[in-house]
Amino acid sequence: MQVLRQVKRPIIVSSMQSAELWSKNDIRLGATIFVLSLIVFLLSPVHQILDSHYSMLLSENLIKHGSFELDPYFVPPLDRKLYPGTSAGDIPYSIERVNGHLYYYFPPGSSVLSAPLVAMLNLFGITTISEGNLYNLKGEMILQIAISALLMSVVAGLFYFTARIHLTWHLSFVVALTGAFGTPIWSTASRGLWSSTWQTFLMAAVVFILFLMQRKNLRYASLILATVLCWSYFVRPTGTIPLVVVTGYILLRKREQLFPFLGVCVFWFAMFLLYSKIHFDSLLPGYYLASRLSFDHFAEAFSGNLLSPSRGLLVFLPWLLIPVFLTLRTWTHGPSKDLQVLSLVIILIHIAVVSTFPHWWGGYCFGPRFSTELVPWFVLLTILSFRSYATAITKLSPGLLRLALLLVILSIAIHAVGALSKKSMAWNVQPVTVDEDPSRLWDWNDPQFLAFITR
Predict the structure, then answer these.
(1) How far apart are CA 448 and CA 426, in angstroms?
(2) Phi and psi dihedrals of 151, rounded to 5?
(3) Whole-angstrom Cα distance, residue 56 to residue 141?
């Protein structure tokens, strides 16, 4: 039986040796996925630039003046046509006034990480600052569209190289395309520079590094891993979850790398606390405080994040049923159970945490926006579930393959609606805004993914 398994396993599992993880053919395929994704993301007409307004303005201000203060760009009275999110001539909702200065309200991590890319695009005359220090909305949109598409295209390619560590190139190609187009990466993260866009990029890097650490003894991997995890928190507070869980994994499985890992974390958090103390006179900016969370509607929010016809993960990503089934089917045979457990813990805690947010549906968006950054963990679970299945069963049944293909196609079709049909975003405000009437989130007669038909 063992001999039989060794013969059949390459149908699913990669036969690459540790000395050479990727061949020239893999490089070509990864580049093809990147280019294909970039073209599709750039040509998709629906853009979601809402909370992220002024994030590129902050990037440009950091480049030109090295400052987080945005005072010169918001001199009243403001023209509401030029400054989105402005009410009655006041400052926009995504700008806050603290100690007499104006700051970008949402996490600054995305703006800091985007600064090098913004600087490059500035060389081509694309800017967020017009003459007289006025806000250039068109420049902001072009920067966000370009950077978000670029980041998510890199993620798509990274999915292929990550999967290729364990799977054949055929299945790795399918996994990468599913991760890129059958998830909120297409319908949300590539539509504008949400804070979850950069966090998704960072989580994809974390998953990639974890797989490499299992395959090779990389001397500085833990230092890079710590840096990426810390920045995922600076980009979005939910980055706390993978940071804590992966720290536990390092403690249990890579203890020899624990102190360097923790040392890097202490350094970055010291820098963040110093930033917060200087600018806000507090240990943390207001957006990072846990007081924003509540358990008053937890049961509805948790079930909604999974099953709502307009926000549910299992509704918008039906292909997730495949790795869930395979994981349960082969739980006692998994060769990388520690990473499977790690991903499941991160996924469950994340869904629970975002379910404590009173505004759990994420406002004007498409589908489960608050779980966008979980996509790399879904991909990790998928890769390991197929590997476990190959180890335990050796052969995928034709029926299971057909079902998997059907669910993947359905998922891609759903997210195509969010990226290609402007009616999908109009659903949020017609016939009444979803924020005013959250009961619409449970209406199976008018689900968001069918907005191109019902509108």
Answers:
(1) 9
(2) -60, -45
(3) 9
pLDDT, mean of each 10-residue run, the chain (455 residues):
40 57 92 98 97 97 97 90 84 93 96 98 96 93 98 98 94 96 98 97 97 84 96 97 97 92 97 96 89 85 97 97 90 78 97 95 96 98 88 71 93 98 96 95 96 87
Angle formed by the axes of helices 195-215 and 221-235, nearest 10°:
160
Residue 215's pLDDT is: 81
Distance CA 281, CA 288 (A): 14
Buried b (16+ CB within 10 A) or exposed e, 140-150: bbbbbbbbbbb
Strands (DSSP E) found in 7-158 = 95-98, 101-104, 129-130, 134-135
pLDDT digit string (tens) for 373-427? Answer: 999 999 999 999 988 887 666 566 788 888 999 999 999 999 999 999 999 999 9
Buried b (16+ CB within 10 A) or exposed e, 230-262: bbbbbbbbbbbbbbebbbebbeeebeebeebbe
> How would DSSP label each residue in 243-279?
HHHHHHHHHHH-GGGHHHHHHHHHHHHHHHHHHHHHH
- Which residue, chain included where needed, has tokens 């999967």? 163
pLDDT at 394: 59
Cα distances (Å, whole numbers) of residue 336 to 134, 213, 291: 54, 12, 37
HSE on the CB side for 137, CA within 13 Å? 9
396 φ, ψ to 5°? Answer: -80, 135
> Given the structure tokens 């307004």, which residue do they identify?
53
Task: Look at residue 8 in the predicted model and tell me its pLDDT.
Answer: 44
Element containing residue 323 per DSSP (H, E): helix 321-329
Distance CA 27, CA 14 (A): 15
Rounded to two decimals, the pTM is 0.94
Residue 391 carries which side chain, given as an amino acid letter?
Answer: T
* H or E stretch covering 32: helix 24-43
What are 80's two structure tokens?
């509401």
Q: In the structure encoding, which two tokens stand for residue 437, read together?
A: 């009437």
3-state secondary structure (DSSP) of residue 104: strand
